[in-house]
Amino acid sequence: QASGAGGAGGEAPSGADTVEKLCHRLESSTLIDDRRDALRAIKSLSKKFRLEVGTQAMRLLCDVLEKDRSDPDLCSYSLESLLNIVSCDPQEEAEPGQAELCSQFAEIFVKQSANVHLVLECIDETDSRVRVPALRALAALLESQTKATQEHILTFPQGCGRLIDVLTDQREYVRNLGILLLVHLTRTNTNIQKIIVFEDAFPRLLEIISAEGCSHGGVVVEDCLRILLNLLRSNPPNQTLFRENSYIAQLPVFFEDADSGDEGGAGGSDAEGWSTQRVTNVLQMLSVIRVLVSPQNASQNTRASQRAILQCGLLARLTAILMASGVPAEVLAETINTVAECIRGYEEAQKFLAAVEAPANPPRPAIVVLLISMVNEKQPFPCA
Description:
The structure is a single chain. The chain is mainly α. It folds into two domains: about 1-160, Alpha Horseshoe (Leucine-rich Repeat Variant); about 205-355, Leucine-rich Repeat Variant (Alpha Horseshoe). About 65% of the residues lie in helices and about 0% in strands. It contains 21 helices and two strands. The protein has helices at about 15-30, 30-45, 50-65, 70-85, 90-95, 100-110, 115-125, 130-145, 145-155, 160-165, 170-185, 190-200, 200-210, 220-230, 235-245, 275-290, 300-310, 315-320, 330-345, 345-355, 365-375, and strands at about 355-360, 365. Helix 1 packs parallel to helix 3 (about 50-65), helix 2 (about 30-45) runs parallel beside helix 4 (about 70-85) and helix 18 (about 315-320) crosses helix 19 (about 330-345). The chain is elongated, with a radius of gyration of 26 Å. The termini are far apart. Pfam families: Arm_vescicular.
């Protein structure tokens, strides 16, 4: 594609020469088609000649995003070129020096907050040719230069709100890119976590989880649960909002048929008839519950969450899983841990568990069955 920028006399031009000529065409040409062709060629070279494109074209890529916003093709080529120089695919990571080079270019790019703001502005565009590579580029920057990119997003007006709005995009593949971006965005920075929650992240994430099939859903459910964990872990204000807005009461449905032997999820299945993805999803949701009742929380917060878990029927759903057959051992083990934390120091919940009977003949207290399971290797819960 870049042959027109080559040298004379039959000698093949070097990558640096080709990129230099294309950059000159992009910067100096007055014909929009000529500029598009030049930038398209730069994009096609941006992986093979990452060093040359990164050193010679980064400023021009930013200029395009700033001055040619009305041209979706130019913006798309610019964003895709940027993505190629700040991130590499798994095959490229095996090549010596490539991952380090991508990291260096990402670091250079995020030194200027204006650069990150340009990418954020492109996410506002509804044209998928622009929004999709903008989401991918920002996710790559967040993954590589997390702290700096997060700080620049905080200084951009409604930066977090714009990213949350992507969750309402009717195009699933665009929405899913937004979810992946939020996984990176919500790590570590408590200020961003609080802002994201105030932008209605909780109801939007729970709605997606429900629409995707709860525990039977695919990796989208897993990613939404990862975001929930990021927002709740070590963040007491967010935990309080989650509880006081009655979102705990929306969790029992996630485990609706986890106490049956049915299986309808996606992915490869294990010996118990559960898909590996379903196991992952349930383990993630159990982690969410454990964060809410963690002994590391303030005691009044933990007690309030324990009370909500008991009153909405979530504890009953978890104890039903303990008594079920065909549940994978790792899910059973984590459910036991979760139930233990839900009743720790809370007499009302302890009384509830003590009254639960296993579906055996004759019926036996669930506590007895739990004790039996500790010495029974082959059938963790032989009552069902």
